[in-house]
Amino acid sequence: MKFKKLLALGATALMMGSTVLAATYPAPFVSSGTANGAIVVGANAASSDWSAAIDLQGDLNAGVTSDGTGSEVTGGDNVGLWRSSDRFNLGNLITTVASSTLDDDDMPNLLAEGTYTDDLNEEFEYKQTVTMAPLKLVHFSDDDYMEDTPTIGINLSSSDWVLNYTLDFKKNPTWTPYHLETTDIRFLGKDYYVLDVVNTTTAKLTLLDTADSSTVSEGEEISVNIGGNPYTVSIAFVGSATETKLTVNGETTNSLAEGGTYKLSDGSYVGIKDIMYTGKDTGISSVEFSIGKGKLELTDGAVVELNDDNIDELTADIRNTTTLDQVVLEWITDDEVFITPDSELLMPGFEALKLTMADLVVPTEEIIEVTQGSDDRIVLKAPLESGDATVNLLYATADTGNFTGLGKDASNLLVTTTGTELIFNYSKLDRRFIASWNTTTEGESYYLETTSWSADSTTGINYTTIRSVDNPDTIKQVDLATGDTANFGNIELTINAVKKAGDEKWMNITINAGGSFDTLYTKEGLKVFLPVADDGYGSVGSINLSQTLNATFLAAGNLSGHNVDKYWLFMQEEDKDSNLAKGTRFNITLNDDSEERLEVASVDSGRKEYKVGDTDDYESYVQSDLATKIVRDSKGDPDNAVVTYHGDQIYAELYLTAPDATIGSGGDGSNVVVVKDSEASSVKDTNLVVVGGSCINTVAATILGSDSPLCGEEFSALTNVAAGQYLIKVVASPLNAEKIAMLVAGYDAADTTNAVAKVKEGGVSTAEGTEEVYPVASA
Fold it and tell me: For site-directed labelling of 149, which of 250, 456, 664, 761 has its Cα 20 to 30 A away?
């Protein structure tokens, strides 16, 4: 949708003498339950920008109610190569999610059943089918496609099979020139004139693309139009029923018999269909001819020839004896080819079939970061049921880089256990724990801490408070004593004992059925296996190698990757039916670098990593229905990893179409997605919310008219945004003038978070040309 700019004065759209109802958020990003938007964040933006963007994404997608494929095709025959119950996910073969054979039910024009009439006027019914090759959806990077640009699509090498087309006669015509030559046959949506039939040792068919046929008589000149090009045709000579010459646009052909062809200087062909000879003393002779742009030669077992040039990708198989049974065209690549949202594959020669792919459908996504908290501390940042949590996960001895314990440091420990009972000893420096709960398809986690340890001197009852680390004022249970329960969502913690005596502060708690203290579930359902220390307190000591998460590796005798020197942080997806921890497992290896600083040493998604552009990022995907993306930053400082978890299956929509068909956004099922500014071209055909300022977001800089980052004073000079302020500005999208882009940017990261919060309040204009700096100065 394109919003027309009526009149803009400063920050307000006005029309004299009229009432204007301006478009407001969430339209056009979500309108009438349909998504038509994407959020763009700077690749190197602050984590708060990413959190704000994900928060905005959730707000928008909450309004998406329509359910569809997310794309639509216009302009000709097309068939989507998937089933509604089985999508084309990463690593899938197309033949496992769709029928491998297509017919007129799928493409009623191109693959229509028909009737062929031979030269003796006998009719023969036929059908047409396409058999698909097992094309595979993969994550790849190939400089022949795009330099240093990892992509999800289909990457075919030389000599890979694409598909077979088959013309199959239900009743077989006689295989002789006498029966077949000078007839018309229609397949793949076009009429072809049978110029020549060879039925000797090697079967051969010569066809002319009959763009136009006509009849010319001696002594006249006629005009025909082929593909917008005019041709004047006359008979130069006709000497018998088997010999004639035509003059076409002043160019005279060789002497031709019926079925003969002549290549004109413009590359088209003239073919003789019938010579109706009459002796000069009795009448006037006529010639039926055809002019077409291409001559096709199909020789059994050989490559197809178009206009006397080989089409190396197509091989003909003419299945015949005394009758013609089938004509098969096998399409095999002769070079690397790519099928992606930006690259189609057209059948060579016939140009009748096209394989094309819509934008990847990504229902939702969330960001999980594994990064340094300091040189000797690893933190996990993840969206939880209780909000965005930053969990101090593991710490190390500074001079060795070896893992020493769980938490921030020896004075701020994280407590975990594989059991359902947790002993939390505040006096032994236990500070935080994670409580989780799950059923088969639902899970939630809370990052918790204790505070307010007290003892009632009169009653002798000891109390404590358990509260959310990230939302301590709103998510908390206060004055908990022995026998009480603390409830957080579906989690019920039973307080078995609370002790406060001098410096001694501890409690013993039990979690309800389905609960755990060694697992973290993100808001969308990714399971993170937490490390467990070697005793019940989470105190300093080696990390337990016998925990459940490593049972598979222990059985294989593989302990080398999981110890105090380096730690495997395991995560596991849901399956496509939202069953928790039933999907693919992957891990991020934590270790120290050459300077004993902790970092993400490697990522094992099960697939290859690819470099992203001129950055220091390496991207990989878990090959699964949910296709979790992991980006490892290796810029030289201690490395980190950003995990993009989708919470539902993502998939490609691959179509087999007519050549003139086009794919557009159907707006009937796709959700709003979040992408990096370096990936903005992938969402160019939708409306954009650009989060973050021009110093860290290249799309924001473009909106402000710059090809390079604009920081600090330069940003303020262009926008009038000072410290503590933010800008909401709507323009025609710099990537697609038919869409809008709304810049939501603050003076600093905290101001950008406030800007996103302002948008979420609703009522913010999304009419092109509007602009406002907040907080609005008083008059």
Answer: 664
Residue 589 Cα distances to 132, 538, 600, angstroms: 40, 21, 6
Regarding whether 370 and 352 lie in a shared domain, the answer is no
H-state helical runs in 34-97: 47-61, 94-97
39 with 167, same domain: the answer is no
Residues 492 and 377 in one domain: yes
Classify residue 259: in a domain, yes or no. yes
CA distance 166 to 315: 12
Minimum mean pLDDT among 109-113, 383-387, 565-569: which range? Answer: 565-569
Q: What is the DSSP string of 371-422?
A: EEEETTEEEEEEEETTEEEEEEEEEE-TTT--EEEEEEETTEEEE--SSSEE
Q: What is the number of structural domains in the chain? A: 4
d(CA 564, CA 558): 15
What are the pLDDT digits (tens) for 365-376?
899 999 998 889
Q: Are 17 and 51 within one domain? A: yes
pLDDT of residue 556: 36
Mean pLDDT, to the nearest integer, of 250-267?
A: 90
Beta-carbon contacts of 201 under 8 Å, excluding residues fewer than 6 positions away, are none
Contact 334, 158 (CB under 8 A): yes
Residues 34 and 128 placed together within one structural domain of the fold: no
Please give the single-letter amino acid code of residue 21: L
Smallest CA-to-CA distance from 515 within 381, 585, 407, 422 is with 422
CA atoms of 1 and 27, how far apart (whole Å): 10
Q: Which domain holds residue 685?
A: 8-69+666-774
State the Cα angle at 456 between 451 and 457, rounded to 5°.
135
pTM of the model: 0.73
Q: Is the Cα dihedral 337, 339, 342, 347 positive or negative? A: positive
First-residue to last-residue Cα distance in the chain: 35
Those residues with Cβ within 8 angstroms of residue 553's Cβ, 6 or more apart along the chain or in another chain: 559, 561, 562, 568
In which residue are the tokens 């639509």 written?
72
* Range scoring the smallest mean pLDDT among 19-28, 165-174, 490-499, 703-712: 19-28
The length of the chain is 779
What is the C-alpha to C-alpha distance for residues 21 and 763, in angstroms, rounded to an integer? 11
Task: Please report which confidence band the pLDDT of residue 672 belongs to, taking 50, 70 and 90 as the band edges.
Answer: confident
Same domain, 454 and 533: yes
Give CA separation, 721 vs 20, 173, 329, 748, 779, in Å. Answer: 27, 80, 64, 10, 17
CATH classification of the domain holding 744: 3.30.379.10
Is the same domain home to 617 and 484? Answer: yes
Cα 256 to Cα 609: distance, rounded to the nearest angstrom: 62
128 and 225 assigned to the same domain = no
- The tokens describing 110, both together, are 């191109």
Q: Is residue 748 part of a domain?
A: yes
How many angstroms separate the CA atoms of 20 and 17, rounded?
10
Residue 605 corresponds to which amino acid? S
